[in-house]
Design brief:
CATH topology of the largest domain: Signal recognition particle alu RNA binding heterodimer, srp9/1
Largest sheet: 4 strands, mixed
Shape: elongated
Number of helices: 2
Number of domains: 2
Number of strands: 8
Strand order of the largest sheet: 1-4-3-2
CATH architecture of the largest domain: 2-Layer Sandwich
Length: about 140
């Protein structure tokens, strides 16, 4: 058995996946758009090029997602994606990349358990925890 994450976006899945490729070194996976699919009639006409289902690979995790029809979209809540890293420099880069046009919940700083820890909600509403256990 394998458990993975599937994120719903409000029409911005493609942009979110591009950000994750940039910040996290994610590798693009298959993308299926609404146009030509059995679900094409379930979204507005201007959504045909939106992602019905797609994925990116981040390390060993396949992160799946898609654009949820506007009337069914709900903002993410009650979870966070956690990045575990050993380089403080890389933690800083990832944190600030995800924070760009998003919201910092807890600044990235030294804690009693980590060389760096911070919380951010990216510009697509996805909450992230950055935990760096490496030496400074």
């Amino acid at each position: 058995m394998q458990v993975t994450v599937n994120l719903g976006f409000n029409g911005q899945c493609e942009a979110a996946f591009k950000l994750y490729e940039q910040c996290l070194g994610a590798e693009p996976g298959p993308v299926f758009r609404y146009a030509g699919s059995p679900m094409a009639d379930d979204v507005p006409a201007d959504w045909q090029d939106k992602i019905m289902h797609g994925s990116v690979k981040v390390g060993d995790l396949v992160l799946m997602g898609g654009d949820v029809a506007p009337e069914r979209y709900e903002e993410p809540k009650g979870f966070a994606l956690s990045v575990q890293i050993t380089s403080t420099e890389e933690a800083e880069r990832i944190f600030h990349g995800l924070a760009r046009d998003g919201r910092i919940v807890m600044p990235l700083e030294k804690t009693f358990w980590a060389a760096r820890f911070g919380q951010v909600v990216d510009r697509f509403g996805v909450p992230w925890l950055i935990n760096c256990e490496g030496a400074e």
